[in-house]
Write a structure and sequence with these properties.
With 272 residues, this protein is an all-alpha fold. It contains ten helices and two strands. A two-stranded antiparallel ribbon has the order 1-2. Strand 1 and strand 2 form a beta hairpin.
């Protein structure tokens, strides 16, 4: 399997940037990775709808590696709420498998792009509004957290993100401190990614028009280069997350999401 030098440079730059964002914002980098991978795949002759699907699946696969690197850095600072992670994880795995093995394969790529854009915009708006939760509100019980995990895992499977775009607003809404929410979201990225990747591999078997190096819906050259680069920058992002003010952290998160959401909406509506 050959890979040209320019492609290596493009993927390395993407890996460096998304790794840093994974640590900084707890989003696994997927919200940034999907639009750029869609462009790279489209430029190499992959059909628009399939390019979106492969970008989503490959983005999720890289989160397996970035989440490990990011969560180690957060854990050293004592920021991960492991009690919350343990309760959300079972639902996350189930929701991820339902999305990646079933719904993902059935939906058209253009619909997935629109779906991606809508939820990115919703997440960005929640962050920009900076609504203060009711002071008495707490995380729901075990059953409620399993159900919430199922919802987070399902949405993540459809848009190829580590779940931070839903789990961070959800946890802050339940009065979990923003830095704890970001760190815990990074920890949740691992079960989300593993379950979804299994589904993308099974669901992508037998699909026609896949480029060289494809394994199901996952594009292996991108996975290798991005993962190698992102694991080095994720700890730097995690370190920065603990030194930035809360409001600025939220606004950085939201601004990036608005721009990328608008691009994916355009792709979904035009079919480009």
């Amino acid at each position: 399997m050959s890979i040209e030098p320019l492609l290596v440079l493009e993927l390395a730059g993407l890996g460096i940037g998304t790794g840093f964002l994974a640590g900084l914002l707890g989003i696994g980098g997927g919200m940034v990775m999907v639009p750029f991978l869609t462009i790279i795949l489209s430029e190499r002759g992959v059909a628009p709808g399939l390019a979106v699907k492969m970008a989503i699946a490959t983005s999720m696969a890289t989160i397996i590696f970035t989440s490990i690197s990011s969560v180690r850095a957060h854990h050293k600072r004592g920021a991960v709420r492991w009690d919350i992670a343990r309760r959300l994880a079972p639902g996350i795995v189930l929701g991820s498998l339902v999305a990646s093995m079933g719904v993902f394969s059935l939906l058209k790529g253009s619909w997935l792009a629109i779906f991606f854009a809508v939820f990115v915009a919703f997440s960005a708006t929640q962050m920009f509004m900076d609504k203060k939760p009711a002071p008495t509100r707490q995380m729901p019980g075990t059953g409620g957290q399993i159900a919430a995990g199922g919802f987070i895992g399902f949405l993540s499977g459809l848009v190829g993100a580590g779940g931070g775009f839903v789990s961070v607003p959800f946890m802050t809404w339940c009065n979990v401190a923003i830095h704890n929410a970001v760190a815990t979201s990074a920890a949740l990225g691992f079960p989300i990614a593993v379950a979804n990747v299994a589904g993308y591999i099974v669901g992508g078997r037998g699909v026609t028009g896949l480029p060289e190096g494809a394994f199901g819906y996952i594009w292996l050259p991108a996975l290798v280069v991005i993962a190698l680069c992102s694991v080095f920058t994720a700890p730097l992002g995690a370190k920065a997350a603990h030194s930035l003010p809360v409001k600025r952290l939220k606004r950085i998160f939201a601004s990036i999401l608005y721009v990328l959401g608008a691009y994916m909406l355009w792709r979904g509506l035009t079919g480009h």
